[in-house]
Structure formats: structure tokens, C-alpha cells
Amino acid sequence: YQSEPQSYEPRSYEPSSQEAAIPARPDIDPRFMKQMVQYNGRETPGTIVIDTPTKYLYLVQGDGQAMRYGIGVGKPGFQWAGVKSITMKKEWPSWTPPAEMLKRRPDLPRFMEGGPDNPLGARALYLGSTLYRIHGSNEPWTIGTAVSSGCIRMRNEDVIDLYQRVKVGTRVVVI
After folding, report:
1. φ and ψ at 140, to 5 degrees?
2. Is the pLDDT of residue 10 over 80?
3. Does the predicted TM-score (pTM) go above 0.85?
4. In this predicted model, what pLDDT tens digit does every residue of 17-37 receive, in sequence order?
5. Does residue 85 form part of some domain?
6. Structural domain tally of the chain?
7. What pairing do the DSSP bridges indicate for beta strands 48-51 and 171-174?
8. CA-to-CA distance for 152 and 127, rounded, in angstroms?
9. Of 29, 22, 23, which Cα lies nearest the Cα of 9?
10. Is residue 5 part of a domain?
11. 8 Å CB contact between 56 and 69
């Protein structure tokens, strides 16, 4: 958990389908906002590319374009690279911290139901048979930083958008 900034102007964004509105948090650096960008990589349309050093996630669209999202990545010592696929998708997932995380942070709850206070946020995309996820966050001010234990964090509104665009089986390349 990161401490929340001292003050912020509460706002909200429109709910997706029949969800309740989720209060938005402080603005992030505009370069980490979702946007369509030119993409000259080798990956095929529909592939997710996670560029850890730049803290961007790309959903390749084809025709030299990709939807780009700002992300939070693993802190030093917790970053990883490889190719996985999405094996499961969950809305408002529950969270059970892994044993190794509880050793580092014994103050963490042992289990947390899904909801706005849950660290996994509004959606989770499960990567292979690992404990890593692409997920929302209840700490959106951490987007653009190296802060996690290896998971890929997104703003809740961005992970909801990505969740709607991808399917189980989607290829995920982490560099």
C-alpha cells in the first residue's frame, strides 16, 4: 500500500455498463493517459506488449497503431520479462496476498473481497500460471512508477477498457 496524497479534488468517471460510478483520483502525468499512438513493433494485432522501462502497455491494433496505456510496474528486484497469455479474466477480483508478500508485509490483510478498496481494482487479467496480473488499482497515483511486486497496474478506467478489448488466450509480451 502507498500512502494517499494529502489532498485531491474528488471527481468521478462514467460507469461502464451497469457499474456504479467509481470516484476518480488525482490526475496523472498526461503522457500516461490512454491514447492511440503509432506502433512499429513486430507483434500482431490483438497482442499486448508491456514495455516495462517506459511504463507503457500497448494493445496492438494493426496498421502501425496501438492503444497505449500508462502502467505501474514491478519495483527493482520484482520486474520480469517473458511471453504469457491471458488465462482468466475477473471483474472486481478478490485478493489473497501471496505468502512471500506477507513475509515482507505482515500488516497486510490475509484476504480482501473485490471492491473499490481492493488493490487489484476493477478488473484483473491473469497471466499464465503465474501470480502476476494486469489489474486495476486503488492507488492510481502510482501509475508511471516502479512500485508493485511484479504485477502490472493500471487506472481502473483503463483496465476496464482493456478488459473489454481482449479475450482469454490473448498473447502478452513483457519486455
Report:
1. -65, -20
2. no
3. no
4. 545 555 554 568 999 999 999
5. yes
6. 1
7. parallel
8. 10
9. 23
10. no
11. yes
